[in-house]
């Protein structure tokens, strides 16, 4: 979620963010299985090895996406809150080892996109 729930992302921002996050996940030997987002947050379904610390992965996803979006879309910088932070420090992560993958993908696909 963005800092202070600012409405930041357009479809163009989300498309680029998905590319960035796919690269970050691959750097951690993981896979971004599904991505979707709205104007102030994103939903990710990530498959990553148990040797990867979740907090480090999330920190990298937020940090890299924040820097690259700011570089490529200078207009986004006006939404950065104190200390140039785009993202809130919080996140939600859930383990879904028993759920069928197609159910999770369908849930994420059905989340609203900004217009």
From TrEMBL:
Signal peptide: none annotated. Coiled coil: none annotated. Residues 1-111 form the Transposase IS200-like domain. Pfam families: Y1_Tnp (PF01797). InterPro entries: Transposase_17, Transposase_17_sf. This is Transposase. It comes from Micromonospora ureilytica.
């Amino acid at each position: 979620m963005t800092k202070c729930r600012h409405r930041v992302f357009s479809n163009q921002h989300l498309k680029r963010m998905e590319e960035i996050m796919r690269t970050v996940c691959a750097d951690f030997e993981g896979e971004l299985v599904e991505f979707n987002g709205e104007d102030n947050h994103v939903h990710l379904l990530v498959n990553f090895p148990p040797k990867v610390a979740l907090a480090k992965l999330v920190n990298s996803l937020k940090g890299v996406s924040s820097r690259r979006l700011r570089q490529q879309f200078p207009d986004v910088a006006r939404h950065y809150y104190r200390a140039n932070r785009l993202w809130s420090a919080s996140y939600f992560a859930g383990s879904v080892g028993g759920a069928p993958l197609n159910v999770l993908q369908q849930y994420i696909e059905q989340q609203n996109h900004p217009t």
